[in-house]
Amino acid sequence: MTSIGSEAFSACISLTSIEIPEGVTSIENGTFYRCEGLTSITIPDSVKWIWAEAFLNCRSLTSVYYKGTPDKWSKILIHNSNSGFTDATRYYFSEEAPDEAKWQESKNWWHYDADGEIVIWKKSDAVS
């Protein structure tokens, strides 16, 4: 699968979090439209396009976990009708504790713990 189709999860109000599979390059128009319970999403670094209204009315979305770097994120084409998505706090993946250079790039880093759960790195975890 390289894209998640238009309105695939539209108005799925019980959806609270989702992890987009590796290899997906496109999140189509209205994919998560009115997913009002969606609070977090994990996006692979393979995503290159997020189309119009893909996250329209996702008012509860607070966290976007991106499996790439800030530089790679900046290359994703995100339609301007996705403010709920772009306003959410964005975290970048780092398997190991971020070093000082990474902390200069962004203050928001995450990793998976031994149980496969998302954990936010703290500045005190930083490698000097």
What does this structure look like?
It is built from three helices and ten strands. The radius of gyration is 15 Å and the shape is globular. The mean pLDDT is 94. The strands form two sheets. A six-stranded mixed β-sheet has the order 2-4-6-8-9-10, with no helix packed on it. A four-stranded parallel β-sheet has the order 1-3-5-7, with no helix packed on it. It has one domain. With 128 residues, it is an alpha/beta fold.
How would the global form be characterised?
globular
The string of secondary-structure elements, in order, is EEEEEEHEHEHEE
**Protein structure class:** alpha/beta
Strand order of the biggest β-sheet: 2-4-6-8-9-10
**Overall number of structural domains:** 1
